[in-house]
TrEMBL record, chains A, B:
<feature type="active site" description="Acyl-ester intermediate">
    <location>
        <position position="238"/>
    </location>
</feature>
<dbReference type="GO" id="GO:0004040">
    <property type="term" value="F:amidase activity"/>
</dbReference>
<comment type="similarity">
    <text>Belongs to the amidase family.</text>
</comment>
<feature type="domain" description="Amidase">
    <location>
        <begin position="74"/>
        <end position="553"/>
    </location>
</feature>
<feature type="binding site">
    <location>
        <begin position="235"/>
        <end position="238"/>
    </location>
    <ligand>
        <name>substrate</name>
    </ligand>
</feature>
<dbReference type="InterPro" id="IPR023631">
    <property type="entry name" value="Amidase_dom"/>
</dbReference>
<feature type="active site" description="Charge relay system">
    <location>
        <position position="214"/>
    </location>
</feature>
<keyword id="KW-0378">Hydrolase</keyword>
<dbReference type="Pfam" id="PF01425">
    <property type="entry name" value="Amidase"/>
</dbReference>
<protein>
    <recommendedName>
        <fullName>amidase</fullName>
        <ecNumber>3.5.1.4</ecNumber>
    </recommendedName>
</protein>
<dbReference type="InterPro" id="IPR036928">
    <property type="entry name" value="AS_sf"/>
</dbReference>
<feature type="active site" description="Charge relay system">
    <location>
        <position position="130"/>
    </location>
</feature>
<feature type="binding site">
    <location>
        <position position="188"/>
    </location>
    <ligand>
        <name>substrate</name>
    </ligand>
</feature>
<feature type="binding site">
    <location>
        <position position="214"/>
    </location>
    <ligand>
        <name>substrate</name>
    </ligand>
</feature>
<dbReference type="InterPro" id="IPR020556">
    <property type="entry name" value="Amidase_CS"/>
</dbReference>
Length: 568, 568
């Protein structure tokens, strides 16, 4: 059997796990006929109760489930149904295990009935997972045809469909219900989501555009409200890009805050810029709920790379005290409108201005962010991502003989020389020196913020466009477009996505007079087309220092509230 | 000028910085004539007041200096005098800057006089530094002849004698007085201290034996009470070995607890097992004083690799509450008497038994530590330390053409092939899997401790001998003897040294019937000679989980107190 047959078999097996009652009875319209399949479009296939449940954020859901007002079963069934629809609309799932989820939900309901209390703070909350997390009885392909029927590409390990990632165990113990795994670009090293199994995952809000990547299936699924919260990973923007492209909240925590233990990955063991796990959700409160839950489990006792930093309520309170009406205290934000390399499209610039207005309206301050050369950072990150010259991902493709998607082939079609230990060490030193320089720049802002502190956060685009057109997202920092996310990974900062607005073709007109700074800049400038992008989501990122998850989530929630987007 | 002339010039320049009044008027006796130059021997050259000051631990010193009872100047002068004597006895200094120290102390006294309060919690406390720390107006050679007149081997950087390490800045801001830098083995990768500049640093308690390494000059200096506290570094035992060999307390914190920023190093950028900074001192309380001080400065704002974990008083209190008389609560310690690879010498085994007795006398429990294979860990650590095949250290020797000491030549005389990115990544994965396995073993002990918790700490030898004979300490894990320290580095655990006893030739007799487990084991078994080792210090290590510095220091202090060794 060739790779195409394996891929087709797997693709069909996913579709076959959708119960007949949840199969779409109508053909999916073309993007020209129906650009946006969120909202009213998908609602037509759901009951009123299903709509009510699935359009409630995770915080609202657990308020009901932990009091027994909604059963775990009805919540789970509603999300399974909506997720099934979402997959048929935009190809966002890799694994479906609705039956197991509903069985788990029933057990939770029994637990509630017999104990008179919820199992944990996430009792009955459906959580979707990017297809890197291992779940018992479920396969993990990570988009590789060659991983079908294996454990991370290896056969006969005894771990196939048995082993579970640490995060999965913790989520179950907190009472969450796991029900599906979502699509990823093969290799994970892309800002779009495509592979030879499920093919391409489209953006449900604007089906001419990408859903983002690499946690793209999560973005698309949550964008359709087929899940209230999902777990992604981010090594160069992979949580933030799909969060923003789908109008969601999301957070890239610093490395070592949440457990990555036992999660499949590309280039595992590359130790310089590490991938992190983090949630995407329809509210900032949902992100806090999940992170607090996980930290309450002392994950540092089960993942050797997690630092012992429990949830710090006082860090939230510090911001809440400033923000409280009548406090007479201020925050100060730095704003980076343009990184000097790629000029963001008009809707992104408008979103940044909207956030500045909101900050000022709330009585806080802004300054301009003028950091050390981001070009230097791009060079370091670019080297790091190419340490093995493609060895790891090429071996995964070789398992089946399947071809690489164009965005992947551009980096990995040919094997590059592997870096030596000395070259890696030199890059690590260069990275640390860049981090130090950047850190001291951040410290230096205390003289101009007017608050007596350095800036509380940096507001920045996370991509130069609202969403990418197919095959235009250059993920790696070295190509410029992705550097709006990757600088955060290089510096190991905390960054949350704040959904701000949508593209408005009447307002966000083309910059006719813009003179590009480079060929790359020109290329990205030219991809903007108001008619095509109209309606697409626009988000920005709120960046904090290392391990500032509590502070950044609180700020993000405050700004989201002020923008009228407490729950999206 | 050849390397010998440069080395001699540097060696003489150090000696010339000792004021004539502090030069020894008598020839240093041979080790056969005077094995032990600590205590009464060195006291003969000091005034009563100098003895009182220098035999007070850091906690006692700052109690006096921060109340103005002792001036910073008199304290500094006393330690400078004693350090000058120490160097003449055992070759423990690389850099002397007594004049600058006394000038700094005078400024502190002026500060106290004009402000009526100390500058900080370390006001007037002399702190010695391993010769990896950069101090303004002072050179850093790290024992390399080729680094003389350079900044880390490079000329014309503009940083020479100007740049300061982050830790140095923090110590000054806390009120500490820096006065000398101490000897290291060239490369730092040795458990003994020798280089072509100062030659060999001997153990002051038993001058037939090594002072340990790589923070060996610190160990010897503090062993002679020429400093109350000093900063070392530890990648495979380099704080713990000299602490134990010189009867001191010392701590190897987890990586990311204290700032390493701007400190010179070997193989900088090797990112798998990272060197850490930590103090050695004459009391556990002194270690706490210094670490609390550094953490009060928010070092995570100045070192990108430091995690935001402030000093956690509640972690100390947790142990103090258990230990309080009448609490009826217990701790449980795991004891590893033998790692199954190298059998410790009789005095080490006796020290372990002494600690067990003390634990039982205090009403706590012990179990046997039966962890995952330490041989597997040795293999991983051995690979990590050879990633660059010698490229970095060989380049440093090549600068001057100087020869390697035998312990160094054994690993680096020939260039080995460099590891590739893929090989490094595979080693990193193997390391993480070993850490996870070890962590789950630790967790599993909760079923047998009787306390409801996993073991609170592990008691283990940190070397199979009380101190090494010259040229017998195989530092690297792959040779077995050093694995008693290196497993802690591989696992990134917190480990403190508890000074327990001294070798007693009458009690610690040779194991006549012992059957060695291997050639290595036999070799180490044969190095034991009660007559030669008689009087040498014996310490053990108290090992805690990652980032458990507060807990481990508290336990170490309690056990030291019970052993009658609150201040050594």
């Amino acid at each position: 059997m060739d790779w195409k047959a394996y891929a087709a078999q797997k693709r069909n097996s996913i579709l076959q796990l959708i119960p007949p009652a949840w199969k779409l009875s109508v053909a999916v319209p073309s993007p020209s006929e129906q650009k946006d399949v969120t909202g009213k479009y998908i609602q037509q296939f759901l009951t009123t109760k299903e709509i009510t449940i699935t359009e409630t954020d995770a915080v609202g859901i657990v308020q009901k489930t932990t009091l027994g007002q909604w059963s775990a079963q009805e919540v789970t069934e509603a999300f399974c149904h909506r997720a099934a629809l979402a997959h048929q609309l935009v190809n966002c799932l890799h694994e479906i295990f609705f039956a197991a989820a509903i069985a788990d939900a029933k057990k939770l309901d029994q637990y509630f009935a017999s104990h008179g209390k919820p199992k944990g703070p996430l009792h009955g909350l459906p959580v979707s997972l990017k297809d890197q997390f291992h779940v018992k009885d479920v396969e993990t392909t990570m988009g590789y045809v060659g991983w079908i029927g294996t454990f991370e590409g290896k056969k006969g390990t005894g771990k196939e469909k048995v082993f579970e990632s640490e995060m999965v165990t913790e989520l179950r113990d907190l009472g969450a219900v796991l029900f599906c795994k979502t699509s990823v670009p093969h290799t994970l090293m892309a800002g779009e989501t495509m592979n030879n199994i499920i093919e391409y995952t489209w953006n449900p809000k604007n089906r001419f555009l990408a859903c983002g990547g690499s946690s793209g299936g999560e973005g698309a699924l949550l964008g359709l409200k087929g899940s209230p919260i999902g777990m992604g990973t981010d090594i160069g923007g992979s949580i933030r890009i799909p969060a923003a492209f789908n109008g969601l909240y999301g957070i890239r925590p610093s490395h070592g805050r949440l457990p990555y233990e036992g999660v499949a990955n590309s280039m595992d063991g590359q130790n310089s810029i590490l991938s992190v796990v983090g949630p995407l959700a329809t509210s900032a409160g949902a992100l806090r709920l999940l992170i607090r839950g996980i930290l309450s489990r002392d994950p540092w006792l089960h993942d050797p790379l997690v630092a012992e930093i429990p949830w710090r309520h006082e860090h939230e309170q510090f911001i809440l005290d400033i923000a409280r009406a009548g406090s007479k205290k201020q925050m100060c934000f730095a704003v980076m409108k343009d990184d000097g390399i790629i000029h963001p499209h008009p809707p992104i610039r408008r979103a940044i201005e909207m956030v500045i207005s909101v900050i000022e309206k709330l009585g806080h301050r802004t300054i301009t962010w003028a950091p050390p050369s981001h070009q230097e950072g791009i060079d370091i990150a670019g080297k790091t991502f190419m340490f093995d010259g493609g060895t790891d991902v090429r071996a995964a493709f070789a398992l089946s003989g399947e071809p690489m998607a164009p965005a992947i082939a551009q980096n990995y079609a040919k094997q590059s020389p592997e870096y030596t230990a000395s070259q890696i060490a030199a890059t690590n030193v260069q990275k640390r020196q860049f981090q130090k320089k950047y850190m001291e720049y951040w410290n230096s802002t205390s003289t101009i913020t007017g608050t007596g502190r350095p800036v509380d956060a940096v507001i920045s685009p996370l991509a130069p466009f609202a969403a990418a057109k197919r095959d235009t997202y250059d993920y790696y920092g070295m190509y410029g477009g992705a550097w709006y996310t990757t600088w955060v990974n290089l510096l190991d900062y905390t960054a949350a996505v704040l959904p701000v607005t949508t593209v408005d073709k009447e307002v966000d007109v083309v910059d006719e007079g813009y003179e590009p700074k480079s060929e790359q800049d020109e290329m990205i400038h030219k991809t903007y087309d108001p008619e095509l992008f109209d309606g697409a989501h626009v988000g920005v990122q709120i960046v904090g220092r290392r391990f500032q998850e509590e502070k950044i989530l609180t700020i993000t929630e405050i700004l989201g509230h002020a923008l009228g987007r407490l729950v999206v």
